[in-house]
Write a structure and sequence with these properties.
The protein is of the alpha+beta class and 529 residues long. The protein contains 18 helices and 21 strands. Helices cover 34% and strands 19% of the residues. The strands form 5 sheets. The chain has a 7-stranded antiparallel β-sheet.
């Protein structure tokens, strides 16, 4: 079996981290360390999650930051799951007519126009107030220290800052180079200091998270943003609030899988899981893989994304049918192969998962959407603003047409799985449209194929964004190419460990024992408390 796929498949390259006093897995080692330290000092899962999230904002500033968004899930000890929607709305003044009058037919990928309200700071503060036990000032300490002392650049960061993408961004947005250094010649271990971000975090520690949205700090950074053409105003910031709602859930393999409801694309993950249960598919007849037939996978993915594109928008814009995930509806959905939303971002997102000793759990995703988001820098405050609104269309589409004051469609897709004894898995990944796809594959590998969580994460993956092109990691079975081409697909082989396939962080819990898996495709790291 493994010989047909690759000699390294089935043999995890990283050890499974195990413990029973809590665990953090995050997209950067310093973030995992910050969260684990909070757990060791008696903090709970949300205390640790916010400490790790704030540290991620400093540790990987090109993927996430103070100017981005967050969407998360929290599970209480009894398994009650709450969705935390920390995404921000578009500017109330933005309109399709006004932008079309400027000659635009689509929102630009970069620059001031795709900027919506940054929701991550409010999400940290409000989630901590609702579910945590520590003050914001305490959990921000590791991030402040890292910003002041400097992040030692790892191999992933060195590759980014020395790469063509950052060079192009710094050319178009020179303030990036002032804040984060000139492109090229960066070295492993070189420290990236962010003193302005440290100052902003200190103000938040002293005055609270609301200072980011009202008062002197808010006025100052907003003035910088508006001077560069950002459409947001003081009312857009002052009226922002994090949404706390019941999670969207479905039964799967005797468990409940929970995601954030729209405007998150979590619905796509539930639809893929539901389709796998409503219409089980056999493994490939040539036994090239013990679980996945790539053509059956793509049929499910396409159908699930049709559902996603019909419903994943600001919750004020859509009504979810009560039977949305019922087996009969899913079987009908499986016949639908309409084209789906294809404008992909770069997958530059950061994630973390936490489970504490009592069984509380958090799956947290935060992002600038693309590398350094919009490219718009508020230089005196260490902020780079995200470009989340770029996926909204400049038309009257009832789901995805731009509307001022509405949250745009969001690719952030945290997930939790619960059973009779509470949380069994906390899982999250970056990867824009690939997020539900990577989660689906890893969850099936673990639950159905019976792989431990680290091996499930390391198993080779496939991904489809749009059109007829399918991406396969080099370690995927060679037989898949012929099977896909025979059905009219075009195959693109990517690296053996491709960051395009995400960077899954996961913790599984059984009889009180926690097992953490961290994806070698990114800088993911697991630490037991």
């Amino acid at each position: 079996m493994t010989e047909a796929i690759g000699d390294d498949v089935g043999n995890a390259h990283r050890p499974i981290i195990m413990g029973d006093r809590g665990m953090v897995v995050a997209g950067h080692p310093r973030a995992a360390e910050a969260g684990a330290a909070v757990l060791r000092s008696g903090g709970n899962a949300m205390d640790a999650a916010v400490a790790a999230a704030a540290t991620l904002a400093i540790g990987i500033p090109f993927m996430n930051g103070l100017g981005g968004d967050a969407i998360a899930l929290h599970s209480s000890v009894d398994g009650t799951v709450t969705a935390i929607n920390g995404s921000g709305a578009t500017a109330r003044s933005s309109s399709v007519a006004a932008l079309r009058a400027q000659g635009l037919t689509a929102l630009p990928q970069r620059g001031p126009l795709p900027v919506s309200v940054p929701g991550v700071v409010a999400a940290w503060g409000e989630a901590l107030e609702r579910f945590g036990t520590r003050p914001l000032a305490a959990v921000l300490e590791p991030a402040i220290a890292l910003a002041e002392q400097g992040v030692p650049l790892d191999a992933s960061a060195v590759a980014f800052f020395n790469g063509a993408e950052y060079a192009a961004l710094a050319h178009d947005f020179p303030a990036l180079a002032v804040a984060f250094g000139t492109p090229g010649n960066r070295t492993l271990g070189e420290r990236l200091k962010q003193p302005r971000a440290a100052e902003t975090l200190r103000i938040l520690a002293q005055k609270g998270w609301r200072a980011f949205y009202t008062g002197e700090l808010a006025r100052a950074w907003l003035t910088e943003a508006q001077g560069q053409g950002v459409l947001l105003d003081a009312e857009d910031l002052g009226t922002h609030a994090t949404l706390f709602t019941p999670a969207l859930s479905t039964a799967w393999r005797g468990r409940q899988v929970h995601v954030a409801p729209p405007n998150s694309q979590g619905l796509a993950l539930l639809a893929m899981l539901g389709l796998s249960e409503a219409q089980p598919a056999a493994a490939p007849p040539d036994r090239s893989d013990p679980l996945i037939d790539p053509n059956a996978y793509l049929a499910r993915k396409t159908a699930a994304f049709v559902m996603r594109d019909a419903y994943c928008a600001d919750p004020r814009r859509i009504d979810l049918p009560a039977d949305l995930l019922a087996p009969q509806r899913l079987r009908t959905l499986a016949l639908d192969d309409r084209p789906t939303l294809s404008r992909a971002g770069g997958g530059d997102t950061s994630t973390l998962v936490v489970i504490d000793a009592e069984g509380r759990a958090v799956s947290w995703v935060q992002s600038l959407f693309e590398s350094f988001g919009s490219g718009v820098v508020c230089p005196h405050h260490g902020l780079v603003l995200h470009n989340r609104a770029m996926l909204e269309s400049l038309d009257d589409d009832p789901v995805h047409g731009l509307r001022g004051g509405y949250r745009p469609f969001h690719t952030l897709c945290p997930a939790l799985m619960t059973g009779s004894a509470g949380v069994e898995m906390a899982i999250a990944t970056p990867g824009d449209h690939g997020q539900p796809q990577s989660l689906f594959q890893v969850m099936r590998r673990h639950v159905e194929q019976g792989l431990d969580i680290q091996t499930a994460i390391e198993w080779p993956r496939l991904r489809h964004d749009s059109g007829r092109e399918v991406m396969l990691e080099q370690r995927c079975p060679a037989a898949w190419d012929d099977a896909l081409v025979a059905r009219g697909w075009t195959v693109r082989r990517v690296e053996r460990w491709s960051r395009l396939m995400g960077g899954v962080n996961a913790i599984v819990r059984h009889d009180g024992l926690l097992m953490g898996g961290a994806d070698p495709r990114r800088s993911s790291y697991a630490i037991a408390a």
